[in-house]
Amino acid sequence: MGIDLVAGGKSKRTKRTAPKSDDIYLKLLVKLYRFLVRRTGSKFNAVILKRLFMSKVNKPPLSLSRLVRYMDGKEGKIAVVVGTVTDDLRVYEVPCLKVTALRFTERARARIEKAGGECLTFDQLALRAPLGQNTEWKIPGESINVENETGECNKVLLRGPKNAREAVKHLARLLVCHTATPNLMYGQRDGNLRGPEEEGTAERVERNLTCERKLGLTHWTSV
């Protein structure tokens, strides 16, 4: 025999059901893909909708060099990136690519179009492939294979370098020796410290670093 929970019970699972951004164009995309998920039941559209909800940190940019490497041997398919596609000067030759993304930098768009490729928006993709046909999922995630409606496994989810941000380089991790040296003025506003206070702050930070070195928790290296 069950019991009646107050308010039907409370779920501790929290996940986004809408984007936090006030961008009206992003909200229009969410409205479009909500409709496609509801009317088509496509896994491709469901994943795109979930990625549109994510924060900026969880939508890292994808460089042109990675995009070229991932699309090697997949000619004729459309690469889909829920994020920004940026240029990479280390790539000298850009093949003909069809790419769908939330945003392209100016140079990345110019190089793709110069090579005979296309830079598509998500509303254009919805018209061309409402079920995600003939697409290659270059969405900033670990490698995941997703079967389409015919049972063929032709879609791959890939996440860009999420931890390549400058902020992550300063996060101390136990027993890992690649943490960058923190700024001595971290957490202090410029010009707030004068004279002995500034010297005391620097000495305190240096003392803390010395203690951590002796304990062997982290090995600090120069930036």
Explained architecture:
By secondary structure, this protein is an alpha/beta fold. The protein starts with 23 loop residues before the first helix and ends with a strand. The strands form three sheets. Strands 1, 2, 3, 4 and 5 form a five-stranded parallel β-sheet that branches. A two-stranded antiparallel ribbon has the order 6-7. The chain has a two-stranded parallel ribbon with strand order 8-9. A hairpin with an 8-residue loop joins strand 6 and strand 7. The chain is built from six helices and nine strands. Helix 1 packs antiparallel against helix 2 (43-53). Mean pLDDT is 77; it is low at 139-154. The protein has two domains: 24-157, Ribosomal Protein L15, Chain: K, domain 2, CATH 3.100.10.10; 167-221, no CATH class.
Total number of beta strands: 9
Helix run count:
6
Element order: H for helix, E for strand: HHEHEEHEHEEEEHE
Low-confidence stretches: 139-154
What's the quaternary structure here?
single chain
Derived structural class: alpha/beta
CATH topology of the largest domain: Ribosomal Protein L15, Chain: K, domain 2
Mean pLDDT: 77
The outline comes out as: flat
CATH architecture annotation of the largest domain: Ribosomal Protein L15, Chain: K, domain 2
Q: Please write the CATH class name of the largest domain.
A: Alpha Beta
The Rg value, from CA coordinates, equals 23 Å
Number of domains: 2
Major sheet description: 5 strands, parallel
Strand content: 15-25%
* Spatial separation of the terminal alpha carbons: 63 Å
Proportion of helical residues:
25-40%
Protein name: 60S ribosomal protein L18-2
Family: Belongs to the eukaryotic ribosomal protein eL18 family.
Keywords: Ribonucleoprotein, Ribosomal protein
InterPro entries: Ribosomal_eL18, Ribosomal_uL15/eL18, Ribosomal_uL15/eL18_sf
